[in-house]
Specification:
Elements: E1 4-8, H1 13-25, E2 29-34, E3 54-58, H2 64-74, E4 78-81, H3 88-93, H4 96-118, H5 122-127, E5 129-135, H6 160-179, E6 183-188, E7 190-192, H7 201-210, E8 215-218, E9 224-229, H8 230-243, E10 249-252, E11 257-259, H9 260-274, E12 289-292, H10 307-313, H11 321-334, H12 336-344
Parallel strand pairs: 1-2, 1-4, 2-3, 4-5, 5-6, 6-10, 7-9, 8-12
Antiparallel strand pairs: 9-11
Helix pairs in contact: 1-8, 2-4, 4-6, 7-9, 9-11
Length: 354
């Protein structure tokens, strides 16, 4: 059965990976709904933008009237909600946008979905799904070296970003409990891979190194994250929205716990191999590593127990950290125009895809 999937935030990093996967590897029709804030880049969708199964709506998820129009026109069988403000440092500097987009926006989308869902015939109503994509940061951090986040780990968010995502998770579950809206929730570990906006750790370090700039590492770099290749995450999300059990939560992780400093050192070593012609004055990429003051409320360790999605849906990551990070570094070396247009801001001038 061919479905019509509405992806919010489909011009973002994870959203664009989901859209590309759906168009390239499934028969589904896809509508990408994105406000196109600074992190939204339609050039990440250039490879599929001409597909007859793809359409784009420039809409703010806080705009209920516009959402109603999209639902009425596209008639989705499922919603995959990825639209969110997601950068912790930005949330510390200016939390208001995070509350507006992640909390108020999710509420507006839930209400638009509920209005649409209530008007469907019985068979379409039972088949509809609202899939909310969240983060492991809602759980706070782990104290023990062997502890893992499970789907029942209590929420203790540490930053304005993670608190806003925790709020949206609670709203989604409440709309299921109170109104019967058929929802699914996923919480993922740190994503990395192609088309990642350069403010995030891995692309930031790659591009700084290529430019001979310092590689700023918070504190002593001992913070541990579980790294998930974005294309593995996209596959998992599509498995959940098409086969997951209504009302359930699925944690998605890469089984790749690494200290931040170790990640940066790995990037430096790969660049020594793949980009040996260094900027002037740089002998070794590792020499660019600089330790800076830690950010407020910085969580020490995140790690996901992904056994439920493996057991119930048969999903496992295809990439190890070693294979995925090599692919990522090579992608940035091969796609300089994409990130140069992001760094210059030109990507916001010449939009592709509608």
């Amino acid at each position: 059965m061919i479905s019509r999937i509405l992806v919010t935030g489909g011009a973002g990093f994870i959203g664009s990976a989901v859209v590309r996967h759906l168009i390239q590897n499934t028969p589904h029709e896809v509508a990408n709904l994105d406000k196109l804030t600074y992190a939204g880049n339609l050039e990440s969708l250039a490879s599929i933008s001409d597909s007859p199964r793809y359409r784009f709506y420039r809409v703010d998820i806080c705009d209920g009237t516009a959402l109603d129009t999209v639902f009425a026109e596209f008639k989705p069988t499922a919603v995959m909600h990825l639209a969110a403000e997601s950068h912790v440092d930005r949330s510390i500097d200016g939390p208001a946008e995070f509350i507006q987009t992640n909390v108020v926006g999710t509420y507006s989308l839930l209400e638009a979905a509920r209005r649409y869902w209530n008007g469907l015939p019985a068979d379409e109503k039972s088949a509809f799904r609202f899939h909310h994509i969240s983060t492991d940061e809602v759980y706070g951090d782990l104290e023990g070296t062997d502890d893992l986040f499970t789907e029942t780990t209590p929420y203790t968010p540490s930053s304005p970003y993670s608190a806003s995502k925790a709020s949206s998770d609670h709203l989604v579950r409440a709309w299921h409990r109170t109104y019967g809206l058929p929802v699914l929730v996923t919480n993922c570990s740190n994503n990395y891979g192609p088309y990642h906006f350069p403010e995030k750790l891995i692309p930031h370090m790659i591009l700084n190194a290529l430019a001979g700039k310092p590689l700023p590492v918070y504190g002593d770099g001992s913070q541990i994250r579980d790294w998930l290749f974005v294309e593995d995450h996209a596959r998992a999300l599509v498995e959940v929205v098409t086969r997951g059990k209504v009302g359930e939560t699925y944690n998605i992780g890469g089984h790749n716990e690494k200290r931040n400093l170790e990640v940066v050192q790995t990037l430096c070593d790969l660049l020594e191999e793949l980009a040996p012609n260094k900027p002037e004055g740089v002998e070794r990429y590792r020499d660019l590593i600089t330790f800076v003051k830690d950010r407020p409320g910085h969580d020490l360790r995140y790690a996901i127990d992904a056994s439920k999605i493996e057991r119930e849906l048969g999903w496992k990551p295809q990439e190890t950290f070693e294979s995925g990070i090599r692919k990522t570094v090579q992608w940035y070396l091969d796609n300089r125009l994409w990130w140069q247009r992001v760094l210059s801001g030109d990507y916001r001038l010449g939009r592709l895809g509608g």
